[in-house]
Amino acid sequence: MRRAAAVSAAMAAPAGAAAQSPIPAASTPATEPSPTEPEALTGGRAGSDFMVDTIKALGFEYVCANPGSSFRGLHESVINYGGNEKPELLTCLHEESAVAMAHGYFKIEGKPLAVMAHGTVGLQHASMALYNAWCDRVPVYLLLGNTLDATIRAPGVEWVHSVQDAAAMVRDYTKWDDTPMSLPHFGESAVRAYKIAMTPPYGPVVIVADSELQERPITDHSGPLRVPQLTLAAPPQADSAAVAEAATFLVAADAPLLIADRLARTSAGLARLIELAELLQAGVISTQPNSLPPIAAGRMNFPNRHPLNQTLRAVAAIADADVIAGLEIANIYGATHIFRDQLERTSRPATKAGVKLITITAGDLSIKANYQDFQRYVEADLTMAADGEATLPALIEAVRRLITPERRRAFDARGARLADASRAALANARTEAAYAWNASPISTARFAAEVWQQIRREDWSLVNGNLSGWPLRLWDFDKHHQYIGVSGGSGIGYGMPASIGAALANRKHGRLSVNIQNDGDMMYAPGVLWTAAHHRIPILTVVHNNRSYHEETMHLQRMGNRRNRGVDRAHIGNQIDDPAIDYARLAQAMGWYAEGPIADPGDLGPSLARAIAAVKRGQPALVDVVTQPR
Amino acid sequence: MMNTRLVRRVLCATVLSGAAVLSGAVLNGMSLTAQAPPQPAPAGNVEKGRLGFIRVGCAQCHGREAQGSPTTGPRLGPNGLPYPAFARAVRTPRLQMPPYSERILSDADLVDLYAFVQSRPKVTTPPALLSSDPAKQN
């Protein structure tokens, strides 16, 4: 109403008349001009309709939003003008959840999901999730509402919810942003933003949709309105001479090792890494969240039961290697050094002297200064600022050209040794899993084994959670969608919404999405449970409920003992107990099928089976499992 | 269970120096072979050790049954280190484990902890669910 009156007044006043009006003296109180004709209260197409045309042309299937008045025009255009289809609006109860859903969705679907939010308070809520996406190299497409023109803002809240430079607060951890000043400008910037977000290294982008631009009717003066053509950029591939040099290092090596983190952007990346590893008969380390050394948690790069997979003996494999190739690894320093967290914090090499280090990462193309996600500088012998997946075909061919029959025989012998070591490590892990098998609270190994027993015949997808590394040891991962990595920024509150976003993407493929959900993480924004139920997103969530912020408990133990005060009070500030949260009832209240708390390991299998039956009926389901600390 | 929020992303491997029986290999560059000559372990109280194992926080990383966890700390028993190496690992850990001085853990308490971890039952027949042969998992 406030804005419609101002706009209609401006439209009703003839331009000539305005030009002839005397300019009020500075001391004269400002008044709105009186309309000379009846006030127009309705109009036809609005600017936000064109915005929806643009969003539709970019192929978004969904747009997540917690509603906000600064994008009310866009909201209305999505649901009415756009028919609430492609994109369909998903009702979110927190902006952080909306962005995290987009984060998880991308890692399954391979294309971004749009999010709408207030440019001020909405973005403030969303910012941590945006940081996770930045660190995890995931494109999130964020549309922010804002009212830049101060003279048409409604008094009160609308001023509080307006900002000069909306994207400023997240510019350190987004790839690009713009504030278009016209609809043609919006069209260009919206398409440009998509292209930038989807060029490796991927990253989140922000477009500010000014409220006046959204709400003003489209007129002959709106400019030529067409959505520019989108042509995605080919990902950056490494320099051919550098690739050839890397191949020379790898073929000549006695113990080459490939460490992959966010390498496989697509299933093709996984296939290419298998091809390279088998060609070289080289060991591979991949997909080991929360591990020591802290590496390789990003994507499903390599089958965990492949004979060349050395992840379970990563420290020994790193120590043995004479050439290490880091493939899209964010923390190559951490992977090659041993860090000691005592009163004096120290690092020492985990590699042997003379090891050659190669890195291929598009991360070198997007380093910023303020936030320190780029990790410690590493002294490498050969670095390529390029996309790993795009570079693998050239590297494979370069390696293939250099292999002689003599090297092939050496490779085969090496491969046999690695296969023996891998087999022994997997067998040892199964033995270790048997300890505390019948313990209550339930051991994390038993937890993982029981879940695997229920899902192993399904087309499953682990969309969140690592359960102390046991799934890597006890499950059989060989497809790209079976593991999508972690949050990236270790910002808490990622797990539940990201897994629901991933489950949304898995839904049309008929996959069973499995979320192993940490209890503390779940409580950041549990309203996303309702979003899953409301939009009929099937997912199995199994709560890893140790009733604490356990990582921080261990940090407190370090501090207490280091100061000779002991650990007796380390639970204060970290424990989530007294009362224990009843996650099953929480989920039931939001429309989920839910059971628990389950503390007897004998009850876990049947409970999971009932929950999966509910998921197969299309319902989200939760089982709350009371576990050992780790 | 939470991941860290700290900017410095310290992983929580509270690995007892030289005490790991988890992998039977090498963990974090440390030899897992006991370096001390075999000596008879001092007699401790298993039940006191069980309570102490939780009270002084060992269970947070190694589990309430000392079964270990791949990401935080290895299994400690049965068949762990000889007592001198165990005690050295607790008093002067080499990596991330909190150091336990005598002010916060007496020698008597340490002996009880050792008695507890040594008393853990050995797995002789793994459960069917852990069979490497999927056909045997039902």
Give structural attributes.
heterodimer, A: 630 residues, alpha/beta, Rossmann fold, six-stranded parallel beta sheet, 23 helices, B: mainly alpha, Cytochrome Bc1 Complex, Chain D, domain 2, 26% helix, 0% strand, globular
Kindly state the mean pLDDT of chain A as a whole number? 93
Q: What is the name of the CATH architecture of chain B?
A: Orthogonal Bundle
| SSE ordering of chain B | HHHH
Q: Class of the largest domain in chain A, according to the CATH hierarchy? A: Alpha Beta
Gyration radius of chain A, in Å: 27 Å
Mass-distribution shape of chain B = globular
Largest interface comes to: A-B, 81 and 59 residues
Structural class of chain B: mainly alpha
Could you tell me the strand content of chain A as a percent range? 5-15%
DSSP strand (E) fraction of chain B?
Answer: under 5%
Q: Return residue spans of chain B where pLDDT drops below 50 for at least 5 consecutive residues.
A: 1-34
- Report the uncertain regions of chain A: 1-20
* Separation of the first and last Cα atoms of chain B: 30 Å
Largest sheet of chain A: 6 strands, parallel
Kindly provide the radius of gyration of chain B, computed on alpha-carbon positions and rounded to a whole number of angstroms: 16 Å
Can you describe this structure in just a few lines?
The complex is a heterodimer of chains A (630) and B (138). Chain A contains 23 helices and 18 strands.
Structure description:
The complex is a heterodimer of chains A (630) and B (138). Chain A is globular. A 6-stranded parallel β-sheet of chain A has the order 2-1-3-4-6-5, with helices on both faces. A 5-stranded parallel β-sheet of chain A has the order 8-7-9-12-13, sandwiched between helices. A 5-stranded parallel β-sheet of chain A has the order 14-15-16-18-17, with helices on both faces. With 630 residues, chain A is an alpha/beta fold. Chain A contains 23 helices and 18 strands. Chain A folds into 3 domains: 2-8 and 41-222, Thiamin diphosphate (ThDP)-binding fold, Pyr/PP domains (Rossmann fold), CATH 3.40.50.970; 240-424, Rossmann fold (3-Layer(aba) Sandwich); 434-626, Rossmann fold (3-Layer(aba) Sandwich). In chain A, 40% of the residues lie in helices and 14% in strands. The model of chain B is unreliable at 1-34 (pLDDT under 50). Chain B starts with 45 loop residues before the first helix and ends in a 20-residue tail after the last helix. Chain B has 4 helices and no strands. Chain B has one domain (9-123): Cytochrome Bc1 Complex, Chain D, domain 2 (Orthogonal Bundle), CATH 1.10.760. Chains A and B meet through helix 12, strand 10, helix 15, helix 16 and helix 17 of A and helix 2 of B.
